């Protein structure tokens, strides 16, 4: 088991999906408007975030879906730099609660250099972005799980002004990997009617 006692069950999209997250991740819909197709959680102390969203199918085959969404996000964020470091399929062992007859899952890991929110380009942060794309067969939906972990926070970025720091235990490589793996292993689709099934 990749989780410990400070992980809690979160109900998503009206209880149709369930996932475990560390308790320090706050539901952003409690503090700001979040679109209906997204669930957003963030840890203010570290500027880490987890975004789960229902997206239209990426314009690619299922085996490249996570990579396609990584590249699309890089473009949308107008990143100054990016590097895709790994891309692969997701096994049943990694995502024990997924019905592989209904889902074609892939993952992508990389880094991006981009400013946060409305920060100027010169205040860009470096972020490790881990993406899991659960392509739902028979429906035109890619269910996207994006985990953002800052590797460098510019001293004048909005994240730094809010007190976020990368100098903490949760930011070492094994903890970043554990966060992504813990989300994948606990992710459950409880009600397929969310996708029109």
UniProtKB/TrEMBL annotation:
Source superkingdom: Eukaryota
GO function terms (MF aspect): guanyl-nucleotide exchange factor activity; small GTPase binding
InterPro entries attached to this UniProt entry: Mog1 (IPR007681), Mog1/PsbP_a/b/a-sand (IPR016123)
Listed GO CC annotations: nucleus
UniProt KW NADP keyword: no
Signal peptide positions (record): none
Keywords: Protein transport, Transport
GO terms classed as biological process: protein import into nucleus
Family designation: Belongs to the MOG1 family.
PANTHER family assigned to the protein according to its UniProt record, in alphabetical order: RAN GUANINE NUCLEOTIDE RELEASE FACTOR (PTHR15837:SF0)
Protein name according to UniProt: Ran guanine nucleotide release factor
Protein's organism: Rhodosorus marinus
Taxon lineage: Eukaryota, Rhodophyta, Stylonematophyceae, Stylonematales, Stylonemataceae
């Amino acid at each position: 088991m990749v989780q410990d006692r400070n992980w809690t069950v979160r109900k998503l999209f009206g209880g149709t999906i369930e996932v475990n997250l560390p308790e320090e991740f706050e539901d952003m819909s409690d503090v700001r408007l979040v679109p209906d197709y997204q669930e957003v959680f963030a840890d203010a102390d570290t500027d880490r975030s987890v975004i789960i969203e229902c997206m239209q199918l990426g314009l690619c085959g299922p085996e490249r879906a996570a990579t396609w969404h990584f590249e699309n996000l890089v473009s949308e964020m107008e990143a100054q730099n990016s590097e895709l470091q790994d891309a692969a399929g997701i096994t049943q062992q990694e995502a024990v609660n997924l019905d592989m007859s209904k889902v074609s899952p892939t993952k992508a890991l990389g880094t991006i250099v981009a400013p946060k929110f409305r920060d100027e380009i010169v205040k860009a942060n470096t972020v490790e972005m881990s993406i899991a794309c659960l392509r739902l067969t028979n429906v035109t939906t890619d269910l996207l799980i994006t985990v953002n972990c800052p590797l460098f926070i510019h001293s004048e970025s909005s994240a730094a002004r809010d007190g976020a720091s990368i100098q903490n235990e949760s930011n070492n490589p094994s903890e970043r990997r554990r966060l992504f793996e813990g989300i994948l292993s606990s992710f459950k689709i409880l009600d397929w009617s969310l996708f029109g099934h």
